[in-house]
Amino acid sequence: MNTTDKHELYLKAYQNTLETLTFPEPNLSAIKKLIFYGVRIVNSKPKTKIIIRDEAMRDSRFAENLQWLMGLLTPSEFVNIFPITKYYDGHKYEVKDYFYTRDFIKTLPDKPIGNINEVMEFLWNYENQELLRFVVNYLCNASNLRKLNGQPSIAEEFAVKNGIEVFTTYTDQRGNKFRVSKTTGKCYKVKRKIPRYLKLVVPSRNRGRKERWEQ
Q1: What is the largest CA-CA distance in the chain?
Q2: Domain residues of the chain, as ranges?
Q3: In contact, 56 and 144? CB cutoff 8 Å
Q4: pLDDT for 70
Q5: SS3 letters for the chain?
Q6: pTM of the model
């Protein structure tokens, strides 16, 4: 099953669950299903090279609505939907792992996670690959919206604040690539790397022949 088919299945399951939602007190089972399917909708959406503003805004609102639903759950309820990834070597590489997430959750009160900012902090400290992809997709979409509004992306803004030079790559009609520094405005030609398995062959007898690369 390809990504598009999975995306459509998750959309249908999400819509069917949405119809079972009760008001004014939504049932917990439906909320959990909406979060489960919603995260997978975001992660399975086919990627496109063209960014459409209205579509990007809808995606942003959808992801933020999911975060609002996540905020209604307690940490223990959340773990039941997205179990902590059983990765135990985080201390060796100074990254999140099962123990880090478990200890982080122990510091939290047994009450709903809270607002969107608190949910994002929770997700940053949570070790689960599906949720990591969700956060990355959400931030990439937010960056796209910023660029459509003429603002720097989240990564570019971070780089500028920390004194890191940012480049934009352009390709001309001949396929040559150039990098322009957003800090200084200087332009640099991108040199094509020669694969290691190629070697330069220089004819010894006929000096009029051109040099060539051979495998």
Answers
A1: 89
A2: 3-161, 165-215
A3: yes
A4: 98
A5: CCHHHHHHHHHHHHHHHHCCCCCCCCCHHHHHHHHHHHHHHHHHCCCCCCCCHHHHHHHHHHHHHHHHHHCCCCHHHHHHHCCCCCCCCHHHHCCCCHHHHHHHHHCCCCCCCCCHHHHHHHHHCCCCHHHHHHHHHHHHHHHHHHHHCCCCCHHHHHHHHCCCCCEEEEECCCCCEEEEECCCCCEEECCCCCCCCCEEECCCCCCCCCCEEEC
A6: 0.76
